[in-house]
Amino acid sequence: MIRVLLVDDQPLIRSGFRALLDLEDDIEVVAEGSDGNEALALARQHVPDVALVDVRMPGADGIEATGLIASDPALAGVHVVILTNYGLDEYVFHALRAGAAGFLVKDIRPEDFVHAVRVAARGEALLAPAITRKLIDRYVTRPPRPEANLNELTNREREAVALVAHGLANDEVAARMAITTITAKTHINRAMTKLRARDRAQLVVIAYESGLVKPTPSN
User: Membrane-spanning regions, if any (predicted)?
Assistant: First the structure.
């Protein structure tokens, strides 16, 4: 059973999402909240698999809530998914950097919304290659941030991370590196551990903020 926490300051939005999730036999909404402070308290109380958190709320917003959840060792298994009306904007970037596994636009189709919850529960990032491209384009003009210790990575781990940062899935990384998918996943998981990335979304952010990837901006 996938346990879900819903946090949004608009009751109508929460009830709509809950109605969709309640129709699924393998998903249970364990709690609802209306701001970032409630998000952290409810996450600690219920330890959900997925926390769906609105990015913009009065008081403590989704970015702050994401950072608090991501930094709590007891909530390491909670995958935060940001809910937004606006798509890929500055708020979403900050939330991803704070540890969110991805984001969903609120006008998403119901079937896609439910599928996304299942994907997030598996620990997979909700970042399609096109979104990864936008993330890279957004940060490519910024100077590298030497926060991550890339020296801890092996050459193969660096190569795998760079491919992930360009939007490749595990099987595509494996094909490029001429290794098995299992080995590719191992390289990626070890890199995540060494760089203290909660998931692939944060790994992508670290990759370009550290200067590991220096892509050519798209036209």
Answer: none
The residue from 65, 96, 126 where one domain ends is: 126
Q: Which domain-ending residue is among 92, 126, 160?
A: 126
- Structure pTM? 0.72
Per-residue pLDDT tens over the stretch 100-149: 888 888 888 899 899 989 988 987 777 655 566 666 566 555 555 555 67
Q: Which domain holds residue 39?
A: 2-126
